[in-house]
Fold:
Amino acid sequence: MNKDLTVGKPESVLWQFCLPLFGSVIFQQLYNIADSLVAGKFIGENALAAVGNSYEITLIFIAFAFGCNIGCSVIVSQYFGAKDFMHMKTAVYTSMIGSAVVCALLMLFGLFGCRTLLALIHTPENILGDSALYLDIYVLGLPFMFFYNIATGIFSALGDSRTPFLFLACSSTSNILVDILFVTVLDMGVAGVAWATFLCQGVSAVLAVVVILRRLRQIETNGRAPFFSWAVFKRIAVIAIPSIMQQSFISVGNILIQSTINGFGSSVIAGYSAAVKLNNLVVTSLTTLGNGISNYTAQNIGAGKLPRIREGFRAGIKLVWTLSLPLALLYFFAGRWLLYLFMDSPTGLAIDTGIIYLRILAPFYFVVSVKLAADGILRGAGLMGYFMAATFSDLILRVIFAMILSKTALQSTGIWCAWPIGWSIGTLLSLCFYHRGPWDK
Structure:
């Protein structure tokens, strides 16, 4: 059901809109968590390390899909808020066509370049084969990932966060079951984990696109909306390209950090692979809530209701802090038991690595959540220069400090300390940029 985010009490509107988004991203993350969980519990520590090592490279592809999602979502939200349904439909079709071209180019890169990337990040020989196999299958499923992301972006732009939640709840639950079937019954190893994700994400992507197209046909316009517009494409690109650059930069930074981590051996890689999935569950959830705030901001800018953005930001802070509190406490005090879910026979070094990582990062979820809420406002308003400056500063600092501190007596623990440093400085910048917006005048 489409929902107008420009009317009603901002706090109530955001909670009702963002909570299903939060549920959706939890299930979305279950795809990656299930892969690592099944690999670690039913195949072994090396398989867990291989899937985790590959994950950092998959983030490059996710960056492009996420950027296309945001570009489409923000522009469609603005047109929807302004009740310009003709251009809104054209924005949807233009996004799909542009995303298909980007996806095709990335598939070519993935099929011929992933093994080179694995070598560049110094992947240990004992996990290189499984890492490459996982990536080859993953790349084949990129069309499903791209079009599912576009569909969820459109749902969010129309104020509907419930439909993508239902799709993800079904597909991610199925993914866990198929993972276990392929690995334990069919004995397919790491390939079984990858094929399970391919199949389940494919089904959800096809269903989501079908529902979107039917939903659009129900919205009446004066005449037939064009299937492509260069003017609309440029508006989408202004949002999408910086978002892609931001996420790609993050991916490259994570790959550099992964390269540093790989120097400490497969046990540290395995511990980090398990812990980073738990951390990404939180950060991605908060990022998705930030995306919800972006949709809220974009619709209200389209409707010319700037005062509602200030109210929305305050409500967004309450929302992200409410959700950060239980997760921070859970990771800090019960991280060991969560990590055991990923490891069948964990070595002392692997489990200790994961525990230290979670205990260092968990208290700072309250900090990074503020940054992601402010970033959501900036992105929804199209202030991409501010958005990129805050994000790049955060990541650059993380990479630099990870490399420096890893060479001190702290060793691998020094890498984990880089996260709070980057998050804290990036949050200060995001808040400064937020207060320069037109809604704060």
